[in-house]
Amino acid sequence: MCAVGAHMMWGFFPLYWHLLDYVPSATLTAYRVIWSFLLLMTLSIAMPRLRRALLQLREPRKLAIYAATATMIGINWGAFMYAVGSGQVLQASLGYYINPLLNVLLGVVVLGERLKPFQWIAVGFAAVGVAVMVMMGSGMPWIALAMASAFAVYGLLKKKATLPPLEGLSIETGLLFPAALAFLLLQSPDPGAQPYSPVTWLLLIIGGALTIAPLALFATAAKRVTLTTIGILQYVGPTLQWFVGVVLLGEAFGGSKLIGFLFVWTGVTVFIVGGLQMQSRATRQARQVALAE
Predict the structure, then answer these.
(1) Is 229 or 199 the better-scoring residue by pLDDT?
(2) 196: how many CB neighbours lie within 10 A of its CB?
(3) How far, in whole angstroms, is CA 20 from its chain's centroid?
(4) pLDDT band with cut points at 50, 70 and 90 for residue 290
(5) What would the pLDDT profile of 22-56 be if each residue is shown by its tens digit?
(6) How far apart are CA 155 and CA 100, in angstroms?
(7) In the Cβ-directed half-sphere of 154, how many Cα atoms lie within 13 Å?
(8) Which of 50, 134, 212, 256 is an S-S bond match for 44, by CB 3.0 to 4.6 Å?
């Protein structure tokens, strides 16, 4: 339930941030960073481990790693906010669909891992899907690629960052906090802009809470749910985002977008089925070894 709840929250995120579409995406990203950090610091009063996490920044190596992860999550959040604010939620959905495939590809390029044949096929289908969108007139899905690439690099860097999710997010938002605050203080005021209403401020504060809540749920689930289940559930979020974009927000979905998504969905299906088969074989082999002993 925690895992499903986390992915459902991520899936319906565009619908929430759409309520604030009158706030520029860069400003919205800055407020998301600020309120997430302030709420995490408030939580640290009752959770000493969050306070202790900040002490990790005294070690230069960990500071460098978390500075890099903070940069990547900042790019991901910024691209996501831009996607929602510009009415391109489908690009956000596409980004999270291809992210797991980019993860395995990054493992080959950076870590020297070997992909299974089904993984190469899955990556190939996703690549064809993106190429179809480009060649048939939809243009390069830069937002989706920025989101997926930043999050893939974020996941790679997280292998070197050993802190739990909330502690890690405390450090990352803490590192982004000065830049976000400076951006808000130094931006030129719009003479015709109206001051934010109490409802807007409330929505911005809740946005910080909604950033933290699914991570807490996911951290709880990750300790109790198999990696196979987690791997399948990661597609709940982009599927719901697709639903929000097409059904609830009325984005156009046809022609090259439809064909491109069909290729990506085929790649995702190959990726999931192949992973389940590989996990099943590993389980059978483990049982055979246990019986032999």
Answers:
(1) 199
(2) 15
(3) 20
(4) low
(5) 899 999 999 999 999 999 888 888 777 777 777 76
(6) 10
(7) 21
(8) 50
Is the CB of residue 166 less than 8 Å from the CB of residue 50?
yes
* 261 three-state secondary structure: helix
Domain ranges in the chain are: 2-120+140-186+196-224+236-254
> In 3D, which of 169, 236, 192 has the Cα closest to residue 4?
236
Q: Would you state the pLDDT for residue 227?
A: 61
271-288 b/e (C-beta count within 10 Å ≥ 16 → b): bbebbeeeeeeeeeeeee
Residue 289 pLDDT greater than 70, yes or no: no
Residue 137 pLDDT class (50, 70, 90 cuts)? low
Amino acid at site 28: L
**Nearest C-alpha neighbor of 63 from the set 50, 53, 73, 75:** 53
Our measurement of the distance from residue 209's CA atom to the centroid of its chain's CA atoms, rounded to an integer in Å, reads 16
Q: Is the pLDDT confidence value at 236 over 70?
A: yes
Which residue's structure tokens are 């895992």?
A: 3
190, with CB counted inside 10 A (0-12, 13-18, 19+), is exposed
What is the structure's pLDDT at 292? 65
Q: From CA 104, how far away is CA 200, in angstroms rounded?
A: 40
Q: Show the beta-strand stretches assigned E in the chain.
A: none
* Core vs surface per residue 42-62: b (16+ CB within 10 A) or e: eebeeeeebeebeebeeeeeb
For all residues of the chain together, what is the average pLDDT? 85
User: Which residue do the tokens 């604030």 mark?
Assistant: 20
